[in-house]
Design a protein that fits this description.
It is built from 4 helices and no strands. The chain has helices at 9-18, 33-47, 55-60, 64-77.
Length: 93
């Protein structure tokens, strides 16, 4: 498992860019269900954490920012560093 630093928007975009072999800047903000399913599997593989997503929560993840929030919550629940307003946009160490 990697360290439990919070995934940020840039990391999520990089994961999505690998899906479809495209540049991160070419990744749309809106996520389709196939992209989201792939993204969750990639997150689980990188972090060794399974996000707690029931069907309703899965359906609520529609954008890259939604995915970032879900992944940050999963890292926090697993004992990673807390996300505060001051660090929410900060780069990972």
């Amino acid at each position: 498992m990697t360290d439990l630093a919070r995934p940020d928007r840039a990391e999520v975009l990089a994961m999505l860019a690998a899906f479809g072999q495209r540049a991160a800047e070419d990744v749309p903000d809106e996520l389709g269900s196939l992209e989201l399913t792939w993204l969750i599997a990639e997150f689980e593989q990188r972090y060794g954490i399974e996000p707690d997503l029931d069907d309703d929560a899965f359906e609520a993840v529609r954008t890259v920012d939604d995915a970032v929030a879900v992944f940050r919550a999963a890292v926090l629940a697993a004992g990673g560093p807390a996300v505060t307003d001051a660090t929410a946009g900060a780069a990972r160490p």
